[in-house]
Amino acid sequence: MTDKPAPYTIVIGLETHVQLQTATKLFCGCSTKFGAPPNTQTCPVCTGHPGTLPVMNRRAFELSLQTAAALNCNIATYTKWDRKQYYYPDLPKGYQISQYDLPFSYEGWLEIGDPKGKFEPKRVRIIRAHLEEDAGKSMHDEHAGKADSKIDLNRTGTPLLEIVTHPDLRSPAETKAYLTELKLLLTHLGVSDCNMQEGSLRVDANVNLHIETPTGKVATPIVEIKNMNSFRAVEKAVAYEAERQYSVWQETGKKLGDPGVFKQTRGWDDTANVTRGQREKEESSDYRYFPDPDLVPVTVTAEQIGAVRQSLGELPAQIRTRLEVSYGLTPYDSDVIVNQGRTFITYFTTAADIAGDGKTASNWLQQDVLRVMGERNLTIESYPVPAAALGDLLKRVRAGEVDTSRGREVLQRMFDTNETAAEAMQALGIEQVDESALMALCEELVAANPKVVVDVKAGKMQAAGAFVGQAKKKNPNANPARVRELCLEIIAKLP
Amino acid sequence: MSLSRAEVEKVSLLGRLQLTPAELDLMTTQLSAVVGYIEQLKELSTDDVEPMAHAVPTSNVFRDDVVTPSADRALILSNAPHADGEFYLVPAVLGE
């Protein structure tokens, strides 16, 4: 990557599929639990046997409404389901039940920003969100070449929400920010676990370039990128695709709308870090959508929509603002905390309230708690020191009962032993040193270090650090900041 | 309105039906007749009729999100032409 501005604008729209957190599939009672042995979670309905009747999962529809409301979408008072016809071995019915012309929600937005200011905050417009069923999983034996493909239909019929944005994103960073914010919102609502490894969140990106030329602006043909299995992969794929399209345009001059130029599908290769061409996308009319006669429409009243909007509570963007306003956090710090999810936010506010200082609590959570969670692969739920206990420790640090560096030892002991702050401090022999004892200690140190005194007198204030180290050896409980202050005071009074 | 042979050929491809040239001719004639019959409905004035998405005047049929037992794997796989006890087996899917 170079710092030189690119000679083009990247235009990105995303289609995100998220698996709804239901116990059962969209149209039958089969479990949606991940990881079951192949083909053990299927029935005649989800495998498309004749004479079966799909019945809509109420919970799936409720979760969909919540998501649409949180994405500021209009919610349709009348919605229906359609059959999208195509042949693929992992689609046993020969059609997918989806929503075509009357999706349950449309025209919303999600606001994104960057706490480090890499781009201006913006509202990413959402075209629609609709509810559909997932297909099964095909496995191909790449070595055997002509061997059969294996089909597992456990996933078939799992409820998916497809969320489609306008092409409003302009960089890999904005794309990642949108996905991060969407995931945060959906996990906050409990609508989806958004686990990409388990396929609960899948992203396809539509990418092209707008290039300024002496004869006006031209657009490159649109490419849909698939097979991106992490947010990082999405970022890399979009950046790669932009450069690829630019060099293809320089070579061929092919533009969007030229005869014979169609939308292309390319797959991301995460090992080679390139996109590769896939089959040409069929025209959407080839899917021959028509209303599914097995499913009746769903109507929603204005009262129900109002109730859903009421029930959402405080959303992540609002919590960020609250932490900035009520706890004095910077946008960066509040972003870090809110991005950790609901439990972590409560942990923070509990600790901060008891400590009486949001900034201190935020620093300790980021530098100590999050670090240890990362090292030991813990979640905040499994982190053993309760929020109130940490808050109590931080209150003592602020009151000068224990200094920051010894405070870390205390936290470590609390982590290891489940002791309270008071117990851990006692066990470590930490007690506040009496001011007169501290003064005596400092006088002793000043007398014993004439060279340091000369240096300090000459203006080398950092030389005073030597006092702190020596004081710690003589009395581990000596507060470093106070030792430094006292020593400097004593030296100042020396002739 | 009549369908062209090319349209019927396209639809047969989308439906994965392999038709002989004779069958294609026959289908073109027969499907054109069916579509032509439906065309007659256009003669009716539907200006005052609200569009409908479903033939049954029912809405909001839901079930609770409660797990029910799935089918026995051996039994459900026995419906497939080829299976290996765990998976359905299909001719190699190329491409994606």
Mind sketching the topology for me?
The complex is a heterodimer of chains A (495) and B (96).
Chain A: E1 8-19, E2 56-57, H1 58-70, E3 74-75, E4 78-79, E5 82-85, E6 95-98, E7 105-112, E8 122-133, E9 137-139, E10 149-152, E11 159-165, H2 172-189, E12 201-213, E13 216-219, E14 223-228, H3 231-252, E15 264-269, E16 274-277, E17 290-291, E18 298-299, H4 302-311, H5 316-327, H6 331-339, H7 342-355, H8 358-376, H9 387-398, H10 404-417, H11 421-427, H12 435-448, H13 450-457, H14 465-474, H15 480-493
Parallel strand pairs in A: 14-15
Antiparallel strand pairs in A: 1-11, 1-12, 3-7, 4-18, 5-6, 5-17, 7-8, 8-11, 9-10, 12-13, 12-14, 15-16
Chain B: H1 5-14, H2 21-39, E1 62-63, H3 73-77, E2 88-90
Can I get a quick summary?
The complex is a heterodimer of chains A (495) and B (96). By secondary structure, chain A is an alpha+beta fold.
Give a written overview of the molecule.
Chain A is elongated. Helices cover 40% and strands 20% of the residues of chain A. In chain A, 38% of the residues are buried. Chain A has helices at residues 58-70, 172-189, 231-252, 302-311, 316-327, 331-339, 342-355, 358-376, 387-398, 404-417, 421-427, 435-448, 450-457, 465-474, 480-493, and strands at residues 8-19, 56-57, 74-75, 78-79, 82-85, 95-98, 105-112, 122-133, 137-139, 149-152, 159-165, 201-213, 216-219, 223-228, 264-269, 274-277, 290-291, 298-299. Chain A folds into three domains: 8-299, no CATH class; 314-427, no CATH class; 435-493, Arc Repressor Mutant, subunit A. In chain A, strand 15 and strand 16 form a beta hairpin. The longest helix of chain A has 22 residues, at 231-252. In chain A, the strands form four sheets. In chain A, strands 1, 3, 7, 8, 11, 12, 13, 14, 15 and 16 form a ten-stranded mixed sheet that branches. Chain A has a three-stranded antiparallel sheet with strand order 6-5-17, with no helix packed on it. In chain A, strands 4-18 form a two-stranded antiparallel ribbon. Chain A is α+β, with helices and mostly antiparallel strands. Chain A contains 15 helices and 18 strands. By secondary structure, chain B is mainly α. Chain B has a domain at 5-43: Orthogonal Bundle (Histone, subunit A). Chain B has three helices and two strands; from the N terminus they run ααβαβ. Chain B has helices spanning 5-14, 21-39, 73-77; strands at 62-63, 88-90. The longest helix of chain B has 19 residues, at 21-39. The relative contact order of chain B is 0.08. Chains A and B meet through strand 2, helix 1, strand 10 and strand 18 of A and strand 1, helix 3 and strand 2 of B.
